[in-house]
Design goal:
It contains four helices and 16 strands. The protein has 246 residues and is an alpha+beta fold. The radius of gyration is 17 Å and the shape is globular.
Amino acid sequence: MNRTVERRCFVKLCAAAAVTAGANPALLAAAGTTARLYHRTALVDDDGVPITAQNLDVGRSYVFHYPYATTPCFLLDLGRPVRAAVQLSTETGEPYVWPGGTGRDGSVVAFAAICAHRMTHPAKDVSFINYRHGKVRYLDSGDRPRERNGVIFCCSEKSVYDPADGARVLGGPAKQPLATILLQSEPGSGALYALGTIGGEMYDAYFEKFAFRLALEHETSDIQRPAGETSVVMDIETYSRTIMQC
């Protein structure tokens, strides 16, 4: 993607955030502090057919890889619009605005599937982190028992995130939301594209910690290879042989 197109995409993103936030200049400025554009990658199925919001089952966890071929992401249809801009911050205190959902109903969201605590993530053998559409019991940040639907839950250390609120931390030791994957829904066709990220990335630490296993699992000597023109979307139960429930 050339720099002119990148600038156009970024302007569109910022404009959408401003409209959703009531054209609040402070929120718009915050959105730009941590937004990063990567290659525009089409989300497709096993046969290379473009994924649209209508292809997704509400409440099901889907996995794709972006912005690198070895960095997993969650793609979720939450079943309800999540359009309101949400002000969040990274662990280091950088503010940003989560632009909400995409797709015709504004119900489709995507996040890096790398837990913000110890970088637990879906692997081909097992996934200790996944989205749970049904009712979940957990302890909030004050160690008070809570119960609610629709959370991303990490079994490793019990970090809990709210995907309808920018993956804000609801409980557990995580210090920041999951990084957001910025999506674009193509006008007309509704095809979904990944454009970049916003929020606290953890890729450098992820590559350093899991380099050997990632090279073996993905059969590559270049674990930081960009995702490329397309990224295959699959059900997490297809991607990971075992899904841990805790």
